[in-house]
Design brief:
Radius of gyration: 27 Å
CATH class of the largest domain: Alpha Beta
Largest sheet: 7 strands, mixed, barrel
Structural class: alpha/beta
CATH architecture of the largest domain: 2-Layer Sandwich
Number of strands: 34
Strand content: 15-25%
Amino acid sequence: MPVNDPFKARATLKTKAGNFTIYRLDALEKAGLCTLSKLPYSIRILLEAVLRHAGHGAVTEEDVRSMAKWSPKAVPEKEVPFMVARVLMQDFTGVPAVVDLAAMRGAMKKLGGDPNRINPLIPTELVIDHSVQVDHFGAKDALERNEKLEFDRNMERYEFLRWGQTAFNNFLVVPPSTGIVHQVNLEYLARVVQTGPDHNGGKDKLAYPDTVVGTDSHTTMVNSMGVMGWGVGGIEAEASMLGQPYYMLAPEVVGMRLEGKLADGVLATDMVLQATQMLRKLGVVNKFVEFYGPGLSSLSLADRATLANMAPEYGATMGFCPVDAQTLAYLRTTGRDEAQIDLVERYLKEQGLFAEAGSPEPEYTASLTLDISSVKANLAGPKRPQDRVPLTEMKPQFRKSFTAPVAERGFNQPVADLSRTAVAKTPQGEVTMGQGAVVIAAITSCTNTSNPSVLIGAGLVAKKAVERGLKVKPFVKTSLAPGSRVVGEYLKAAGLMAPLEQLGFHIVGYGCTTCIGNSGPVPEYVADAVKGADLLVSAVLSGNRNFEGRINPVVKANYLASPPLVVAYALAGSVDLDMATESLGLGKDGKPVFLKDIWPTTAEIESAMSKAIRPDLFKSAYSDVMKANPRWNKIKVAGSELYAWDEKSTYIQEPPYFDNLSLKPGKVGDIQGMRALLVLGDSVTTDHISPAGSIATEGAAGEYLLSRDVSKSQFNSYGARRGNDRVMTRGTFGNIRIKNMLLPGTEGSFTRHLPSGEKMRVYDAALRYRKENVPLMVIGGKEYGTGSSRDWAAKGTMLLGIRVALVESYERIHRSNLVGMGVLPLQFHAGENLASLGLKGDEVFSVEGISDDMAPGIDLTVVAQKADGSTVRFAARSRIDTRVEVNYYRNGGILQTVLRQLVAAG
């Protein structure tokens, strides 16, 4: 077999792990195509991927030349066919992806193809981490009881995943109660340098950068290790799994220069919340952010993980940290094999991908500087992660948000309500709660539980608080959900688990809990007091998401904070507090105790870490990880190439995407006579569109489950039921806080049917429009689709009959997901919106100019006909951004495109 090496880049690399074939980046420099040292490290990794695949499949020599021309002043406009090394999933997003693959196998057979051709062609890893819920807390047996409930509720899903584990090749499932997907990725799955078969047929394996796309937006956490990756929609991930390139426009790269060193007692979380605010203000959507500068070398890899994790919150595709000595140190700390570490160091240095002291700084599209020595303690809230609140300003900011109009981040509560209180009848006796009472204090989420410094810090705060005699307020629901089992072990080794438990911070599960809406119910005595007095109560969590309606239905104000601050606010019991001047409570000596009295120094944290964190803890935790959960091991597996769908199941159903699918797509054209199902404002998140939390009995999804004899106690969550389109479609636009401007002054999943004017549920209105043969659209404002990379936000949109989304701007992943489901994303021209065009959203809309051969990014004409017969015509930009996306749209979506290609290929 002749070697396809158009740029003469093949070479052999000798390492302790053996000899490997590599594709040398400096071959492009020698050919005069680029100056490597000027390119951002992230661009070099993209360049290596196209170089290695040049002449194979979809990747051409021209793709390499185009990528090599990357310049901060003239970013190539040509799309890049990026072949990733692996795909990463968690179970909320992984279950529907596996459902889709199972459905594709069935469709393949119906179309006369071989179902076994539907298999992941690249390594695909799924970590079950999103299904544990905090039902039990504040007790030694909380972990065991929550895990038992998790299996009871999710057995159908777990049986399905066990089937997938055996039915599909190249598919690894990490069992429940192991940890959060992104921390497991950091500690165990990520390779930094990947190896695999040589597609040119050489005897040596290939060595190349580990890259990943994941079905969770916080896949970016692995950027801290120099592993390039980001969150994509489940449907895009499935295409990558099936060997399709991930097509993207060559990105702009914003450099964030870090200077200085964190001050004593200041934590990585504080720095990250400040960086998030700065980057969101600059505007980095659809861009790479790359961190550099002397301050970066002062940050541990775990600190960098906190920084990289928040990329979706500051809006970037990823937040990348190049590999350096800190990365190698982390690999050793986490017990990685020395031969693999040697391969990482030799390969990356050989390729100019290792950031060494004195290396030239790359050239960036734009840059900004953060002096991390200036950072102070921070929180973010009450409902967006980019809304940073310095700790010293929490009390006035809470009061300001409390009294400001809704449009200005508040909750529209009258000023007079600030003094309102309620009495909670707790097991410890009656306790008075005020406005801003903290009813949830959760150490949770991938953002911080990957970082030993902030968790050790939380333990030290707890230890000092217990020594002073402080107690958590009895109305606070406390929880600790570590990102991996290693965390529990090093907290015990540091002697900090006991004081955390004395304050109620018992381990409730090893998985993603409160941050995704799996906080579980607050005690009834708390909920009754809050509802009875109409109190505005708070949650403080060490997470990355605090959107409205996400954390808990009882809570309106949600604040992101470091784990030590979570403990402090649990002690204080309120966010309506100035922690600099007001005490957290009275100690056992009767004297007030202030935050400064129990706050640890950096030296104290580092001392505890040095004694407690050892490589053997990581090696032990992951040595037998696939067989470590006995409940998982007992699940019976039915081996078969096709899944046996069960009509009675309320968790797993065959989706309708391939119903009546023909071998060739029909033609696309103008869409006439649409009605707006919803008219929405700015910052509508994927949580608003497709909730992940609890399912209400009074909603369309709840009524469906009740009709299937599912009791309220067994509803589980929307996230857990993503394998059932019948639940998820009914829950689309089902957030309890969503505001539809077709019904001013209301919240929740309601709309106005047009032209009748009748108020009804969104799902019921969609069914009525379908009977009337009326196509639908959704209209929105800026930052439409922010938040999680939730494919169901697009799937549900399509299944409701929505053909077009027309908004002022999109978040990256949701726009892509809409195209992937065959929904046309349109964008108002800058400065225009519904109001500026003199429209209300109750008009009849048409879109003209749609055709099979339309170019990416063109203007289409929108025609709005008012009730009096007059019309408004305006241009809106098609956000089908690439030629490949045009093809996806023509086929009705990515899955239909791939399936037709596979059938055609025989």
